[in-house]
Design brief:
The structure is a homodimer.
Chain A: E1 2-7, H1 37-45, E2 54-59, H2 63-69, E3 78-81, H3 87-101, E4 106-111, E5 115-116, H4 119-133, E6 139-144, E7 155-161, E8 168-175, H5 180-189, E9 192-202, H6 203-213, H7 215-221, H8 233-240, H9 249-254, E10 260-265, E11 269-270, H10 275-281, E12 290-292, E13 295-297, E14 305-308, E15 313-316, E16 322-327, E17 330-335, H11 342-353
Parallel strand pairs in A: 1-2, 1-4, 2-3, 6-10, 12-14, 13-15, 14-16
Antiparallel strand pairs in A: 4-9, 5-11, 6-9, 7-8, 7-9, 8-10, 16-17
Helix pairs in contact in A: 3-6, 6-7
Chain lengths: 358, 358
């Protein structure tokens, strides 16, 4: 049967203070639709995968938020990580968990915090992708046609078309976050696509790939066979999971395996990875300002983002290309061009004042 | 006996949103001392006038705040104005109220929301001023040596010294808020002093001055004689006060009377009339930033004021000469050079969203 794994453990520190340590980005209603990014993700896949076959992997810290936001997903489907170990251990555990009750499962793996505007194209790509991975020993990733020389994403180079699978191509290479010059070359070549972080495979294919290319991860989770999807699972995970290496699925498996394919799609996609990306995909005023759920009076402001929690008025003047974000006990007012420095500023906040403002 | 009238009815809209409609500037702990400007004012005069002879005149809207902030001032001494009518009606009522039980009273009249750094000089000036007005039919005002060509203040021109009263001079003329060119001339002449809004007189002198120079005010309050300082006072005021003209003591009396004197002093005084004035008198960082009771991390910010209520962190970058102020449901981020426009912006907020954000 078909399953969907939603990866939901990120800390989302790049949207501080709009997102906070206890309430990262995937749990926020970013677009004022009344639904969080996680809820939108679960809703988007619903026509293809029913809620009882949605598996959510999150940090145990967020258990109650996930339960509250996805009440129709069975409790047993919410896998709680006792430690943060990036995507590879998360994916390996989820595959073992699913395979325990359905060894023939096929799995869609989705980030919980991306924006996808074209739901129909997404569902069609998912359906065609599942057809492919259910009939081939293949690891399939979704590639997004790049629109700018983005340096924050990984790129996938397409190779020759797969036989009997229109729109699916062999992957020739992965390129991690490039320099700006390199990104321009990749963009112009037409052969490179953004790595969306959306993956499709059968449980058997991905578990085989772990054994072959990431044995240090397989060895952590293989001893749990017999306890997955049973009452013993959580005790096993509590013991084993923290010893898994902290590594992404791209590094651990995708860049090494030879049976990796890409399906190129136009999804109206954004990873919403930073304020700049959010600004790009949000509705603008004539002056290029973006407002996230607050009332704003902004004479002579342009190109700015106002993201303030609660029923609040912001009166701002003369801000060009600024981020103004507030939530709880923290207020951020920083030029968009200096977004990269926010992390350093937060380290300074931590060292001066401790964790309470993060 | 000696009395002190503290005028405490202002709305302080210029410090929005740090001050709010329901909590104007005089009730705020502006300098993080743990005491409001009103409390500091009452404390400052205490060595000369005991609390039971302090009269506080405020708008009825602020009755509970005044009682809470000045618990030692007797309830009967808190005069509640049923309408806003500027300083002249306030002063006339307070003088009548005091004269009703002590016709020979001398009175210090103080704004509740000014900063005075030199308490000793202030008390000495008050004591000497009282000696003067207790022995002369005189209206005495405190004049501050100007330090810059300020256009927001009124100026007092000094005349010849009073006989037998060192440091007290006849007033030759009043000049209301001058143009910048005019202010420069006044500053250089050495003959002009800022009008501090601090007044001393006997009850009989000020009431006589109202009768002579502002009969339209005297006529409102004269019929109340017999009810002042009795249980009938508030009923009389509720009826009569709203019919008083809306006018300052300067326009109504001081600019017309011939027995007006000025005592020139150096008090370390500021009227804290706007953010600029507050910035001038507050402790600065090396970069010229001023912080009002909040934690601030401000790389590449300079000349700015950060006034945010509550236990909060502000992370701001690249702001030059800005006002960042927040309180409750409102956040202001405006260049100091545009402070004059805030009032217009607030009108816009009112017309779009109503009173709840003001």
């Amino acid at each position: 049967m078909r399953y969907c794994v939603i990866m939901c453990g990120g800390v989302g520190s790049r949207f501080w203070p709009f997102s906070r340590a206890g309430m990262p980005k995937q749990f926020l209603d970013f677009f004022g639709t009344g639904k969080s990014l996680l809820q939108l993700t679960a809703e988007r896949i619903a026509p293809l995968v029913p809620q009882e076959r949605i598996i959510v992997v999150t940090n145990e810290e967020y258990a109650s938020i996930v339960r509250e936001q996805l009440p129709l997903v069975p409790q047993a489907n919410i896998l709680l990580e006792p430690a943060r170990r990036n995507t590879a251990p998360c994916i390996c555990w989820a595959a073992q968990h699913i395979a325990a009750s359905d060894p023939d499962a096929s799995i869609i793996t989705l980030p919980s915090d991306h924006l996808i505007l074209k739901t129909d194209a997404f569902l069609q790509a998912m359906a065609e992708g599942l057809d492919f991975v259910e009939t081939h020993d293949a690891l399939l990733t979704l590639g997004i046609m790049p629109t700018r020389p983005e340096t924050a994403y990984g790129y996938i180079q397409r190779g020759s078309p797969a036989t009997n699978a229109p729109g699916i191509l062999k992957v020739k290479s992965f390129t991690e976050k490039p320099t700006l010059d390199m990104a321009r070359v990749l963009l112009e070549s037409g052969d490179f696509f953004w790595n969306s972080g959306i993956f499709l495979w059968s449980a058997s294919s991905i578990l085989r790939a772990f054994s072959q290319h990431a044995p240090e991860i397989a060895e952590v989770f293989d001893p749990g066979v017999g306890s997955y999807a049973t009452p013993e699972e959580s005790a096993f995970i509590a013991e084993a999971f923290p010893s898994a290496p902290n590594i992404s699925i791209d590094y651990a498996v995708m860049e090494k395996a030879s049976n990796v394919y890409v399906k190129t799609v136009d999804l109206g996609w954004s990873d919403l990875g930073n304020w700049g990306a959010l600004h790009d995909v949000s509705p603008h005023t004539l002056e290029g300002n973006v407002t996230q759920g607050c009332k704003v009076l902004a004479p002579d402001c342009s190109g700015s983002i106002f993201a303030v929690k609660g029923d609040k008025i912001i009166v701002a003047a003369g801000l060009k290309d600024y981020i103004v974000a507030e939530n709880g006990n923290a207020l951020l007012i920083v030029p968009r061009s200096r977004e990269q420095e926010i992390k350093t500023m937060l380290s300074e906040v931590r060292s001066r004042y401790g964790e309470k403002y993060l």
